[in-house]
Each structure stands twice: as structure tokens, then as C-alpha cells.
Amino acid sequence: MKMQRGVLLGFLWMQICWVRRAQMKVEQSPQVLNLQEGMSSSLLCNYSLSMTSIQWFQQNPGGQLISLFYIASGVQQNGRMKSTVNSKERYSQLFIRDSQPGDSASYFCAVEAQCSPDTCSLHMNDS
């Protein structure tokens, strides 16, 4: 099961989708989020083509992969965390309010591109 999650993590970390010779690019900033207890922080996920949904994940130091949000548009909130999507401007944000020690983890986004099986195939980022 851990190996499957590791492979899944690799595929979700950065997706490239070929749609009519256009390349889907997903960039997250900051690359490393330094949380300070009691403070609020946010991550930005920019993507280059139309999408159907964004997923935000947390991976704790023990390696457990946790899905935080699956969102197509608007705003979702779960406790101290909130995710927003602006599909027109092609970005999503993850907000973490009042950070606690348990929030220490890796956070990342994954984008599901709008494409058909005939025109899209997923490739892992080579970098």
C-alpha cells in the first residue's frame, strides 16, 4: 500500500497533459511552506490549461497521504483549512489558519485537466 501511495504521489506531484500539442503546467508556490505555530499561511497552485478539479493533499512526516480538498470551483472550508479555486485566472489557494504542531507536513496540489482520452495522456514530470 505504501508503494502504491508513493507512485500515486509521483503522478500527482506534477502532471503534464498533452492536449492538442499544448502542455499542462502546474506550479506551486512557495515550494516549501514554513509554518509557525499560531500563524496563518497559504499555498498557491497555478495551472496553464482549463481544469475540471483541483485536489490538495497533505503528507505527514510518517508518509501518510491525506486528501484535504477536492474542489472544482468556489470555496471549501474544513476546520482551520480553506481552499479556493479561480478557474478564470487558473489558480487555487490553500489557506491554513492558526497553525498547530500537527500541521507540520508536505502540502501539494494536483490538477485534473479538461481533456478527452483521445487527446490527453498523463506523463510524469522529468525534472
Structure commentary:
The chain is mostly beta strands. The chain has one domain (about 25-115): Sandwich (Immunoglobulin-like). It is built from one helix and eleven strands, in the order H-E-E-E-E-E-E-E-E-E-E-E. The strands form three sheets. The protein has a five-stranded antiparallel beta sheet with strand order 3-4-9-8-7, with no helix packed on it. It has a three-stranded antiparallel beta sheet with strand order 2-1-11. A hairpin with a 2-residue loop joins strand 7 (about 75-80) and strand 8. The two termini are about 25 Å apart. The relative contact order is 0.29. The model is unreliable at about 1-20 and about 120-125 (pLDDT under 50). Keywords: Adaptive immunity, Cell membrane, Disulfide bond, Glycoprotein, Immunity, Membrane, Signal, T cell receptor.
Tell me, briefly, the overall form. Answer: globular
What's the N-to-C terminus distance?
25 Å
CATH topology: Immunoglobulin-like
How many domains, as an integer?
1
The number of helical runs is 1
User: Element order, helices and strands?
Assistant: HEEEEEEEEEEE
For the largest beta sheet, what order do the strands appear in spatially? Answer: 3-4-9-8-7
CATH architecture label: Sandwich
**CATH superfamily heading:** Immunoglobulins
Helix-strand category: mainly beta
Task: Please state the CA-atom Rg, rounded to the nearest Å.
Answer: 15 Å
User: Helical proportion?
Assistant: under 10%
Strand content: over 45%
How many E-type strands?
11
Return the CATH class.
Mainly Beta
Which regions contain 5 or more consecutive residues with pLDDT less than 50? 1-22, 121-127
Residue-averaged pLDDT: 75
How would a crystallographer describe the biggest sheet? Answer: 5 strands, antiparallel
